[in-house]
C-alpha cells in the first residue's frame, strides 16, 4: 500500500522532478517507509512513489521500478494477490529474467513487459492503481482495480498532465491553479461525496474503477477504457439458478475462503476489523479457520447503546478465539478528530462513519500493519433493507398516475417529521420501530419519482437537486440519473451501489481513514471473482424470508451461533443528530454563521440557516443534510488558506 504521483510536460529541466517531490512528500502517510522520484528529462516525465512496506521489505521492492529491458517504469499502489501464480505463469511461458526479489510490483512489471498492459489487467487479482511509462511508445498508462479500492486522480494543470493517489498531492505542487467546480459541489451536497469521474476541482478527474487511460502527449489524453464489468448474464447464472441452496452456500464458501487465504499473505503483522455484523464476522471466521494461531481483531464501540455493536463483536471474538481489542468512541473523541478531517479526506467527504473508521484504524495500526475488513457484503449480496423497501414501494406506486403520487407526497409533507413522530407514538411498539417521522417525510420526497432510478438515488441523497442549495447551479444542471431497467429491481439498485456508492463513498472512507494511520486494509468480499459470483445469483437466492445476504448468513452459521448475529442491522454510524445539538453545536454554529456563508458565496444562506434551526428545535432531523454542508465548510476553511 503506497502513494503514487507524476507529472508529464517539463522537458529538459528539473521542474518536473521538483513538483513530483512536493507531491510525494504530501503522501508520506500512505508510505512512511521509503520514497523516491524517477525522471526522464528528454521526454519530460517524472514519477514519484511513497512506500508502505508490506511484501518484500528489502530494496528489491522499492519504486519507481524499471523493467529488465529498461523499456517500462512503474509506480504502483496496492496489492496483487495472485502475484505468485502470475510469476509461475511467466516462468512457464519461457521467461528467462533474473528475479531480484519476491514483490508483486516486480511481477506486475514483468507481466506488462511480456503481455502488455491490457492483457496484464485481465490477469490481475487485487486492489491497485498504477502508472507505467513506456519509453518506446512514449506513452504513460494509468490503471485502476476493478472494484475501485485504490484511488487515482488525473488531469491537466498548467498545461501539464498530472496524476496522484490523493488530491492533496496535486494541491501541494499546483495549488494556485486549482478552482472549485460548483457542479461537483452540488453533487457532493447531494450525496456526501463527489461521484467519479469528477473531483471537487475543475479539470481534475478520478479514473473510474476497472478502467485504464493512455496519455500519448499533452495534446492526446485518450478516453478511459473499461476492461471489466459485472456480468449481466452468464452460464454460471443459468447453472446456479438450478443449484440447491446448500450447494450455493458451498460455492460461496469456497470462493470467499480462497479470497481470504490469498489476502492473508504479508511480510508484516496482520489482523482484521470486527464490527459484530455478518460480513466482518464471516471474514474473521474464515481467517481463523485457516490460521494455526489466534488472529488479531479490532472493534470500536459507542457509549450510546443504540449505536453500539461492540458487545456482539466481543462475544464472536471469544467464540472464535481471536486476540481481541476494543476502543469506545465518545463525543470528545469525535470533537478531537473533526479538525483533521479536511486533511485526511482531501476533497469534501461527509460519511459521518469516517470518524470511527479513522479511530479504529489508529488503534489497529498500533498492533498490525494490515487489516482485513468485511466491506462490500451488503452491496454484493443484497444486505441493505432499503433494497426490499424501495423495490416494494416502487412496485406498488409505479402504475399510479404521477399527478396522484404528487398529491400523496404533498399530503404526507403536511406534517413535520416531529408531528409524524407524535402520531406514530400511539402505534404498537413493533410498528414504531419501523415507522417514524423522518422515514415518512423521506418517503414523501420519493413518491413523486418518475422511475426507480430517480427514487433510489433520491433515497441515497440528502439535499435533493430541486433544493437548489448551491448558488449558481440549478437542479436541472445537476444531471438526471438513469440506468438500464431490468425485471429485477433489487439487482438494479445493487448495480448502482457497486458502481457509485461503494467506490466513491465506502471505499474512500476506508482508504483515506486507514492510510492516514499508514494502515493497509484488504476486503476479501471485493475479490472480483466473489463479486462475479454474487451477481450470478438471483435476488431470490440472496434474500430469504425478507432477510438479505442469505448465503453469507448460512455460511457464518457454520462458524458462529446464529444468536450472535441474527439481529437488525445497526450500521457503522455515530449519533450525529444528538451530537449536533450537543457537543458539536458550537463548532457547527461557527461554520454555519450567516455572515460567513454569505461572504463565501457557495450556498443559499436562508436554506442552510433554516435547516439548522429546524434541527435545533427538533422539528426535523437535519443531521445528515447539515453534515454535508459542515464538511464542505470545514474543508474550505483549510483549503482556502
UniProtKB/TrEMBL annotation:
GO BP: any one term: asparagine biosynthetic process
Q: Where is this site: Important for beta-aspartyl-AMP intermediate formation?
A: 375
**Which GO cellular component terms are attached?**
cytosol
Q: Mind telling me what this protein is named? A: asparagine synthase (glutamine-hydrolyzing)
Q: Which reaction does it catalyse?
A: L-aspartate + L-glutamine + ATP + H2O = L-asparagine + L-glutamate + AMP + diphosphate + H(+)
Question: In which family does this protein belong, per the annotation?
Answer: Belongs to the asparagine synthetase family.
What keywords would UniProt list here? Amino-acid biosynthesis, Asparagine biosynthesis, ATP-binding, Glutamine amidotransferase, Nucleotide-binding
Q: In which pathway does it act?
A: Amino-acid biosynthesis; L-asparagine biosynthesis; L-asparagine from L-aspartate (L-Gln route): step 1/1
Enzyme Commission identifier(s): 6.3.5.4
| Alphabetized NCBIfam families for the sequence | asn_synth_AEB
- Please provide an example of a Pfam family that matches this protein in its UniProt record: Asn_synthase
Lineage from the top down?
A: Bacteria, Pseudomonadati, Pseudomonadota, Gammaproteobacteria, Pseudomonadales
**Is tRNA processing given among the entry's keywords?**
no
The species is Pseudomonas prosekii
